[in-house]
Amino acid sequence: MARGVHPIRQNTSFALAKVCKAHRTHIGELLAGHGLHVGQEMVLVELWQDDGLRGGDLADRLGVEPPTITKMLRRLESCGLVERRADQEDARSLRVYLTGRGRALEESVLRCWERAEQTVLAGMNARDRQIFRMLLDRVKANLDRGFGVGQ
Questions:
Q1: pLDDT value at position 72?
Q2: Is 105 exposed, middle or buried (0-12, 13-18, 19+ CB in 10 A)?
Q3: Could you say which DSSP state residue 7 is in?
């Protein structure tokens, strides 16, 4: 008996999930060359932007739970990329700071993301790239709002 394509495989969200998995694998391979795991660079990006954030602020910015960020920070700290220090205004709170080694990774990580961008957008002209980005932003906004959930 011939089998057709399963209906789930025709679902755009299924295709998006497959693309996200492939992208995560690709970025992971690029970052591994610099001793990083996928997701760790996201913490570094936030600190390159605003060094000295509290762990809770990092969790909020990355959309993860505080225990997740704590685990990520422990790993980054053990690699010598960040350090946690007491907040000078609130001794009960810790702030996260880049080390020299963490700061030095910025250019390398930027190059990884630039290489990924070239791979992902190969064969698209400038207009296609602009539309694709706009559509991705809309998808993200829909997901952030929970658009269509439970309707």
A1: 95
A2: buried
A3: G
Q: How many CB atoms lie within 10 A of CB 12?
A: 8
Q: Exposure of 59 by Cβ count < 10 A (0-12 exposed, 13-18 middle, 19+ buried)?
A: buried
Whether the CA torsion 27, 42, 45, 71 is positive or negative: it is negative
Q: Ramachandran region of residue 146, left (φ > 0), alpha (ψ -120 to 50) or beta?
A: left
Q: What is the pLDDT of residues 57-110, one digit of tens each?
A: 999 999 999 999 999 999 999 999 999 999 888 878 889 999 999 999 999 999
**Burial grade of 68 (CB within 10 A; 0-12, 13-18, 19 or more):** middle
Cα distance between residue 148 and residue 151, in whole Å = 6
Q: What pTM does this model have? A: 0.85
Q: Residue with structure tokens 């000078």? A: 88
Q: Is 85 helix (H, G, I), strand (E, B) or coil?
A: strand
Residues 7, 52: Cα–Cα separation, whole Å:
48
Asked if residue 131 lies in contact with residue 62, where contact means CB atoms within 8 angstroms, the answer is no
Residue 11 CB neighbour total at 10 angstroms: 11
